[in-house]
Amino acid sequence: MKSFFWENLRIALAELWGHKTRSILTGTGIVIGIIAVSLMSTLINGVDGLFEESMKFLGRGNLYVEKWPWMGGGDDWWTLRNRPRIELDMADEIKERSQYALVVAAERGRSANLSYKDLSAENIYIHGVTANYPEVSTVDVEFGRFFTDSEDRTGSPVVLLGSEVAKTLFPHENPIDKMIFAGSKRFRVIGVLAEMGQFMGSFSNDTQVIIPLETFNKIFHGPWGRRSITVKVPEHLVEEAKEELRGVVRVLRGLKPGEPDNFAINQQNAFRESYQGIKMAIGGTGMIITALSLLVGGIGIANIMFVSVKERTREIGVRKALGATSSQIQGQFLIEAMVITASGGLVGLIISTLISLAISKFLFPATMSFGVAFMAIALSAVVGLFAGLAPARKGAKLDPIEALRYE
Amino acid sequence: MLLIQVKDLYKIYQMGNTEVRALDGVSLSIEQNEYLSIMGPSGSGKSTLMNLLGCLDTPTSGEFFMDGINVATMGDDELAHIRNKKIGFVFQTFNLLPKSTSLRNVELPLIYNGEIKAHDRRDMAIKALTRVNLGDRVNHKPNELSGGQRQRVAVARALVNNPAIILADEPTGNLDSKTGEEIMALFDELHKQGNTIILVTHEEHIAAHASRVVRLLDGKIAVDEPTHRGKK
């Protein structure tokens, strides 16, 4: 039987080579289907990596006490809008009352323009944080130092620059101990942060500057900007700690039993959950596109195979007269269909490999796994098998006498 | 030696309410190395008999032994094997695969034999092509050959598996008379070399090459006699 496989493969290749245009058009549906499936899973892999990378900024054991919930949250916008803003001096109380809290840091933020001599950096995120902020975040000081607790308490005008900001304002100079302006306020640069990359592919952590929280409070009055208390707890106790923290904040806020929370406790799970949802949506859409294009491609192939069987009725007659059995004829056409789809799959795989290389180079890391490639080829061969079955059976069942007489 | 023995062969088709007796009780014996022609007007059952002798079809009833094997009751796959090993077909319209070379066309029966190695197949095909004087046209495709050459490729294909009978259906029908005579000379030569040949034709001068002629009429054998050449 083995020799018939190679023989049939040879016939199939010759036949497809003989009808190049037809073969290409027939295989295109499969090519698109395979591109859809392999690119979709490659994209999901890439986005997964990006997501996990972003989640590192948040920290698994971090709870964020804020006015707004990160994702949805049930209450309507006006209720959320009318919540009192977070009093950042709660941070010390929380640290005192909570059993789980390892570190409690507070932060505020808003945008401002910076300048140094004739260079300026616009719309820079000014981040006012407590001195323990490095313990709850991934910021890393590359040059210089972070500010001290007493610098924070006294509201010293010191600043750490994000790596992008440092490059913009100090293209040729060492920024340490230089004085920069934020509006009319003078700050002394005490450090430069290491490069951190983007959060979710949008907000860059490298275009921020960090100043002590008290300094921030002195300069920027008014209700605007983000306010957040970060409570770092042991990772494995995060759910218990969240409940405890809720109770602590309710007490501090003087909420009576039955009154709803007027604050939100956020954690990276919120991102995780909605990310899973997005991922499922992307994956599901991809599956539907793939299934549809493979179905349409398969129907196209079945169609062409019927035409091919009809056109080659006489050939089938000759082969049968010379001793080909029905199963050999069936095998011939099945292999032909599978060769079309497998080649389509291979071409699709090559194209999507190129596309994912391009994505990797210009957008975010995305690599196609070996499993995806294998699955794509297997899938296209299966489509060929199903698409070829009916036409191949039709060819195999032909009566040799009728087939030889066919004009 | 008795090669083919056919006894009371019937082939009956049901066409609506009418019964068509394509073969109406045919009995026939063919010896090894016979040179037989089957003649008859259209509708006489000539084609039906040829299809049965070629194992392309099975009879409604009757006995059909080829080389001592009962062929009449065989299934499709068994018939395919018998065709592959025992019968060499030559058709009026040559029926070569148009995209394949002479060599590939001649190899085809050996491929379906399934037991012959690729290297041996090639050797056997070249030998068969040499026997029909086409040793120098091995890599030509049918459209690069003349009609006579195509029919000789077909004869080589019929010979290559060393069959018990060569069954030729109007082998000169698509050739001019000169080329036709060349092909007939080839059959005469093959007969001399010991092959059994059955010609199906409606042309008297083609049938005259054989040594025995069977004339069919209305599904029955009307005449079964030696030809002029057979009497000699």
Structure description:
The complex is a heterodimer of chains A (407) and B (232). With 407 residues, chain A is α+β, with helices and mostly antiparallel strands. Chain A folds into 3 domains: 2-54 and 272-405, no CATH class; 62-102 and 237-266, no CATH class; 105-232, no CATH class. Chain A is 57% helix and 17% strand. Chain A has 14 helices and 12 strands. Chain A has helices spanning 2-18, 20-58, 77-81, 90-97, 133-136, 149-153, 163-169, 213-219, 238-253, 268-311, 313-321, 326-362, 370-397, 400-405; strands at residues 62-66, 103-116, 119-129, 141-144, 158-161, 179-182, 185-193, 198-199, 203-204, 208-212, 226-232, 264-266. In chain A, strands 2-3-10-5-7-6 form a 6-stranded mixed β-barrel. In chain A, a hairpin with a 3-residue loop joins strand 8 (198-199) and strand 9 (203-204). The longest helix of chain A is centred in the last third of the chain and has 44 residues, at 268-311. Chain A starts with a helix and ends with a helix. Chain B has a single domain (34-55, 76-231), classed as Rossmann fold (3-Layer(aba) Sandwich). By secondary structure, chain B is an alpha/beta fold. Chain B has helices spanning 46-53, 76-86, 102-113, 118-131, 147-159, 177-192, 204-207, 228-231, and strands at residues 2-15, 18-31, 35-39, 61-66, 69-70, 87-90, 165-169, 196-200, 212-217, 220-226. Helix content of chain B is 35%, strand content 29%. Chain B is built from 8 helices and 10 strands. In chain B, the strands form 2 sheets. In chain B, strands 6-7-8-3-9-10 form a 6-stranded mixed sheet, sandwiched between helices. The A-B interface holds A 1, 3-4, 7, 14-15, 18, 314-315, 317-328, 400-401, 404 and B 51, 54, 56-57, 76-77, 80-81, 83-85, 89, 91, 95-97, 99-100, 108-109, 111-114, 118, 157, 161.
